[in-house]
Amino acid sequence: MKKKVALLAPAVALGLTTMAGAPAMADHAAGSYSTTLNQVNNSGASGTAWIDVNGTEATVTIETSGLAETFMDNPYPHVQHIHIGAQGTCPTMADDANGDGIVSTPEGQPSYGMIGTTLSLEGSTGPEAGTDVTVAPSGSSFTYERTFELNQETQDALANGTGVVVVHGLDPANQPAAATETMSSLPGAESLPLAATAPALCGPLDMQPAGGADTGVTAAEPAAEESNGMGVALLGGGLLAAAGGAYAVRRRMVADR
């Protein structure tokens, strides 16, 4: 059982951008992909991610620890995605273009690209779910397991070696002053602190040899879900609503659809 945040106000899209679909290619991404999730922005977090692709169906398992734990005394929601279409790498502090001590999401995009798939707990894995903190895993440590239909763009990125898992949301207490004193530069997110939308964990996905490699991650039980579309969407206005106290904590199964 996992805690999650249920907000009473809808999430606000922050810079949603769509991309053209790629030509269909049958089973070209089939196989297993994994990565070690390393800290970004000195978050102190760590994790692993494993993706098994069979036809158009993907089983994703992510384990994390050391992330920001609470927001307003409730579990901190961590929006997570498979980013695609760029260099297939993770940003470093050298990518902090404005020198404020934090690599923002836009500063990281030349490395990891736009969102191909939102790794939500339930419902859509499309771009519309990218801002929905009510379906994001939460707390300092969590295990995420889900099986769903993987869109063509993300399949292409995995096959091309440009898929990257990114988990967002920093603890301002462990960040430079800009984390709280500076607002996010993303359109529509000017009222959110920079920490809320910045990346905390990142890992490029690599295909594993037949038979896979031991990452210590156990594959999820199938629970197929519909998925379509792709885009850029970041942590929604739910955090802003939470600042007003408009949310409640409820318990649910992590892999529940």
Structure write-up:
Keywords: Membrane, Signal, Transmembrane, Transmembrane helix. Residues 1-22 form the signal peptide. It comes from Arthrobacter pigmenti. The chain is of the alpha+beta class. It has one domain (36-252). Helix content is 12%, strand content 29%. The strands form 3 sheets. Strands 2, 3, 4, 7, 8, 9, 10, 11 and 12 form a 9-stranded antiparallel beta sheet that branches. Strand 5 (70-71) and strand 6 (74-75) form a beta hairpin. The protein starts with a strand and ends in a 5-residue tail after the last strand.
Q: Could you tell me the number of beta strands?
A: 13
Largest sheet: 9 strands, antiparallel
Q: Could you say how many structural domains there are in total?
A: 1
Structural class given helices, strands, pairing?
Answer: alpha+beta
* C-alpha geometry: globular
Q: Uncertain regions: pLDDT < 50 for 5+ in a row?
A: 1-26, 213-257
* Beta-strand percentage range: 25-35%
What is this structure's SSE topology?
Blueprint: E1 2-7, E2 31-39, E3 46-54, E4 57-65, E5 70-71, E6 74-75, E7 80-84, H1 105-112, E8 114-118, E9 142-149, H2 152-160, E10 164-168, H3 178-181, H4 194-197, E11 199-204, E12 206-207, H5 238-243, E13 247-252
Antiparallel strand pairs: 1-13, 2-3, 2-11, 2-12, 3-4, 4-9, 5-6, 7-8, 7-10, 10-11
Brief overview, please?
With 257 residues, this protein is an alpha+beta fold. Helix content is 12%, strand content 29%.
